[in-house]
Amino acid sequence: MITIRTLAELVTQRASWPEDIGFVPTMGGLHEGHMALIRRARGDHEVVVASVYVNPLQFGPQEDFAAYPRTEDADCAKLAQASADAVLLPSDAVIYPRGRERQTQVHVPGLSEDLCGRHRPGHFAGVTTVVARLLGLVRPRVCYMGKKDYQQWRIVTRMVEDLGLATAIVGVDTVRENDGLALSTRNTYLTPAERSRAPGLYETLTEGAGQVVAGAALTDVEAACRERLKALGFAPDYVAVRCADDLSVPSATDSDLVILAAARLGRTRLIDNREFRR
Ligand code: AMP
Questions:
Q1: Is 7 helix (H, G, I), strand (E, B) or coil?
Q2: 149 Cβ inside 6 Å of ligand 1
Q3: 78 CA distance to ligand 1 centroid (A)?
């Protein structure tokens, strides 16, 4: 596996690769959820490229940018083990050569201000800006994204459509622990007591989806899920039932739905979701 740190190295490598590139952007702290994306790319493409970059632009001033796990050696070992061809480990200067303030920004309006965007102002503009830059540099045929970050996946898909980029975005199902907790780099923040409560998030969403299927009103289900999360020791940011494709508020005839939530457990903010049909 090749390690790429500079723009010059990336340009040289890119010129030597065939067009059939599968790309997996990450912030590192790699776990089996990330590896599912890598394995999917490995099965589908001649060349597999991953990136590990903790993007400062997508963290708010009060968020965990400084504390975010940085495990470069372990990440590279996992990627090599999974037969990735290259890992991009860019410095800030590679991603934002003019400096962060002067970087051209990409913002998907509407979708970026909803759900997590309400609680993390500027977060999704940070995500779309870095992903647009990475897609421009790597020019992959397909970019793999986890459905664990459901809103992010939909926003990046919208960005690629709106900008006419030549990369397809493919969503990959969430990888979970045996007790249902979605794998996340941030799970390492949980204390043992919080970790034992954490599966309650997905359990609550699963119950909520069942209630919608049984005919309950969406706003009643959302409220009941918030109360249940509070009773389990979470501080919910939101619980929402939306259309799976565009995250709009469902009408009575919409049947492909997703229930999404963000909730804090101590100092850790967890997100999760469940797709379902009614
Ligand atoms: P991150 O390093 O958290 O930015 O995640 C990098 C990519 O891995 C994103 O597309 C995430 O949605 C995806 N991902 C993270 N956790 C999981 C998981 N448990 N299952 C599937 N994909 C995941």
A1: helix
A2: yes
A3: 15
How high does pLDDT run on average in the chain?
A: 98
Which distant-in-sequence residues (6+ apart) come within 8 Å of 164 by Cβ? none
Nearest residue to 55 (alpha-carbon basis) of 107, 125, 115: 125
Q: pLDDT confidence of 81, banded at 50, 70, 90?
A: very high
pLDDT in tens, 12-27: 999 999 999 999 999 9
How many percent of the chain have pLDDT more than 70? 100
- Determine which residue's CA is closest to atom 5 belonging to ligand 1: 26
Can 34 be counted among the known catalytic residues? yes
Q: Is 76 in the pocket of ligand 1 (CB under 6 A)?
A: no
Q: Which ligand 1 atom is nearest residue 147's CA?
A: 12
Q: How many residues does the chain have?
A: 278
Q: Tell me if 27 sits within 8 A of 53, measured CB to CB.
A: yes
pLDDT in tens, 142-167: 999 999 999 999 999 999 999 999 99
Residue ID of nearest Cα to ligand 1 atom 14: 146
Give the largest Cα separation in the chain, rounded: 57
Is the CB of residue 55 below 6 angstroms from any atom belonging to ligand 1?
Answer: no
Q: What confidence score (pLDDT) does residue 79 get?
A: 98
Buried b (16+ CB within 10 A) or exposed e, 164-201: ebebebbbbebbbeeeebbbbbbbebbeeebbebbbbb
pLDDT tens across 240-255, in order? 999 999 999 999 999 9
Find the catalytic residue in 34, 107, 119, 123. 34
On whether the CB atoms of residues 117 and 151 are closer than 8 A, the answer is: yes
| 37 pocket-lining for ligand 1 (C-beta < 6 Å) | yes
Residue nearest to atom 13 of ligand 1 (CA): 146
Which pLDDT score, from 0 to 100, does residue 112 have? 98
